[in-house]
TrEMBL record:
Disulfide bonds join 8-69, 145-177. Pfam families: peroxidase. This is peroxidase. It comes from Eucalyptus grandis (Flooded gum). Residues 1-236 form the Plant heme peroxidase family profile domain. The lineage of its organism: Eukaryota, Viridiplantae, Streptophyta, Embryophyta, Tracheophyta.
Length: 236
């Protein structure tokens, strides 16, 4: 990555040093930064959304880079570099417009079906292979119970459970989700290592979010998922 070789030669080292030291103190951070990076691609300039976890790291890096090379390194690129060092190519400039309404409109929902996800990714210039391969990011990190509670407790409005979810896993999730604020690993038993295990759990009917499970509802997407699992494409 050479985008700042002339304009700010120490940029990548600064990002790397801060990211690594913060990750050493907080192993959950790479997942937060990776999710920020994804949201930044879908929503014009995620940075001003102060409610997102991990942004304090971007703030710290931005402050040091402004001291080193003022007005040179965009927040969008800091995010890309931090996501790479925490666990994605530079060349992105910050958008001048950032609208809260866009955040809701453009972001894929965890309850989305395949066609909706496919369309949203297509609107961002990404195809079915991109959708499947990027979804592997859910091999790390957590989701709050409130995000998928409907699947456990009230799937069709009759206090029922999503029958497509593995029954043993459903019982485990119900026990873990005594409060909607609790979190559970997106990739059970492997949520701290970046590997192909996410696809293993999908085929065991243990995908946590409807947006994960729905990848198997489309023949082409399911085929990609099957290949990624079989050949263990993402090695730990
Ligand atoms: C396909 C559509 C996607 C949907 C609907 C979706 C939705 C979600 C939701 C609802 C959560 C849980 C948030 C929470 O409860 O705090 C989550 C977590 C996460 N997502 Fe996605 N996501 C999608 C794709 C992606 C992509 C493409 C990436 C990165 C390339 C990504 C990276 C992550 C990460 C790393 C986490 C864990 C965050 C943490 O541990 O705090 N997601 N996602």
């Amino acid at each position: 990555m050479t985008f700042y070789r002339e304009s700010c030669p120490r940029a990548e080292a600064i990002v790397r040093n801060i990211t690594w030291s913060r990750v050493a103190a907080n192993p959950a951070l790479p997942a937060k930064i990776l999710r920020l990076q994804f949201r930044d691609c879908f929503v014009r300039d995620t940075i001003p959304n102060r409610s997102l976890e991990g942004l304090d790291v971007i703030d710290e890096i931005k402050a040091e880079l402004e001291a080193e090379c003022p007005l040179t390194v965009s927040c969008a690129n800091i995010l890309v570099l931090a996501a790479r060092d925490g666990g994605v190519l530079t060349g992105r400039r910050d958008e001048r417009v950032s609208l809260a309404s866009e955040a809701l409109d453009n972001l894929p929902s965890p309850a989305s079906d395949f066609n909706t996800l496919q369309q949203q990714f297509a609107d961002n210039g990404q195809g079915v292979p991109d959708l499947v391969v990027l979804s592997v990011a859910h091999t790390i990190g957590v989701a709050h119970c409130v995000v998928f509670a409907k699947r456990l407790f009230n799937f069709t409005g009759n206090n029922d459970t999503d029958a497509s979810l593995d029954p043993g896993y459903t019982a485990t999730l119900k026990a873990q989700c005594s409060s909607p604020r609790n979190t559970v690993g997106l990739d059970p038993n492997s949520s701290s290592s970046f590997d192909s295990h996410y696809f293993v759990v999908l085929f065991r009917n243990q995908g946590l979010l409807t947006s994960d499970v729905t990848l198997l509802m489309d023949k082409r997407a399911a085929n990609f998922a099957w290949i990624y699992r079989k050949f263990n494409v993402f090695l730990a």
